[in-house]
Amino acid sequence: MIIAAISTLALFMASLTPASAAPPHTADQASGIAITQPTPQQREAALAKLGAAKSTDPVGFGQRMRMLQNADALNRFLFADARFDGRQQQEFVAASMPTDALQGLIEMTDAGMLKFEFVKNSNGQPAAKVSKGHPRPLIGGGLGTTSIRPAGLDSLPQCPSAWAAFWAWYANTTLVCEALGFFGPWTAAGCYLALALGGMVIDFNMSC
């Protein structure tokens, strides 16, 4: 059943990935991936990809956009670069992953498991950086809920199942720079995830 779910996620992402994705940036990984503006051709291609994602799954897309309205930690990053429309960055996120994987991403950023930062790299360029956090043990949560809270001394922490869904999605996609066909902070963060955290996938039970 788990294998089937992972295969489904992989097929979903394959349908979103353009045939001729740009190669990843490899410079300056230690200080983040530069957030560069797209060319007119890249913008046109990205918006076409976004439109296709909306029309393919309008109900799921709408659900993911509603989830993002309250994703405070992630939104601080998506709206951090004034050169880009934060709402459009939210749409790119909603078009990039399945609903359960997005729930996992939101839960992990809210809980401090993953930290998305808008920084300046060593060349002084606006950049995206992602780091692994060190949260307190958590209890509650789970797919479709928002009941994440610090665990008490006598409680038995449980990791939300959505965290596992995020890592299943992550492990079966190529999150490198323009591979998703989009641009701006979200795409740069995806690039950093792949290049800086690739091979060090966080155990979703690390805080249990």
What does the model show?
The protein is mainly alpha-helical. Helices cover 47% and strands 10% of the residues. It has helices at 2-16, 40-56, 58-69, 72-78, 86-96, 99-111, 161-171, 185-196; strands spanning 33-34, 114-120, 126-132, 138-139, 149-150. Strand 2 and strand 3 (126-132) form a beta hairpin. The two termini are 24 Å apart. The model is unreliable at 1-27 and 136-158 (pLDDT under 50).
How do the helices and strands line up, and which of them pair or pack?
Layout: H1 2-16, E1 33-34, H2 40-56, H3 58-69, H4 72-78, H5 86-96, H6 99-111, E2 114-120, E3 126-132, E4 138-139, E5 149-150, H7 161-171, H8 185-196
Antiparallel strand pairs: 1-3, 2-3, 4-5
Helix content: 40-55%
Report the β-strand fraction as a percent range.
Answer: 5-15%
Q: Reading side by side through the largest sheet, how are the strands ordered?
A: 1-3-2
Q: How big is the Rg? A: 17 Å
Determine the number of helices (DSSP H or I, runs of at least 4 residues).
8
Residue windows where pLDDT falls under 50 for at least 5 positions: 1-27, 136-158
Let me know the largest β-sheet: 3 strands, antiparallel
Order of helices and strands: HEHHHHHEEEEHH
Structural class comes to mainly alpha
Instruction: Give a count of the beta strands, DSSP E runs of length 2 or more.
Output: 5
Mean pLDDT across all amino acids: 73
- The end-to-end distance, rounded to whole angstroms, is 24 Å
Oligomeric category: single chain
